[in-house]
Amino acid sequence: MEDVYCVVTFHVTQHALLFEKVMKEFKYPIKLMPVPRQVSSSCGIAAKIPCDKKEEILTLCKEKNLSFDEFHEIKHKNKKSWF
């Protein structure tokens, strides 16, 4: 089974916090989290977002002049439990 989700990375923590505030104002489900191991960034905070909303969020970032580093699609393969 494979779990796919998207994250946005940031250069500084302040940008992550501002991004979260604006996304919540526009009712996008967002969760700040540590940057996944598969991704490297200057800041240790990433925002988990719905992959199907990427284009809408990119447009909103441009309109609101929100700074971010990159968008990443993360594929996490769930390992079967031994129990």
TrEMBL record:
<protein>
    <submittedName>
        <fullName>Uncharacterized protein DUF3343</fullName>
    </submittedName>
</protein>
<feature type="domain" description="Putative Se/S carrier protein-like">
    <location>
        <begin position="5"/>
        <end position="73"/>
    </location>
</feature>
<dbReference type="Pfam" id="PF11823">
    <property type="entry name" value="Se_S_carrier"/>
</dbReference>
<dbReference type="InterPro" id="IPR021778">
    <property type="entry name" value="Se/S_carrier-like"/>
</dbReference>
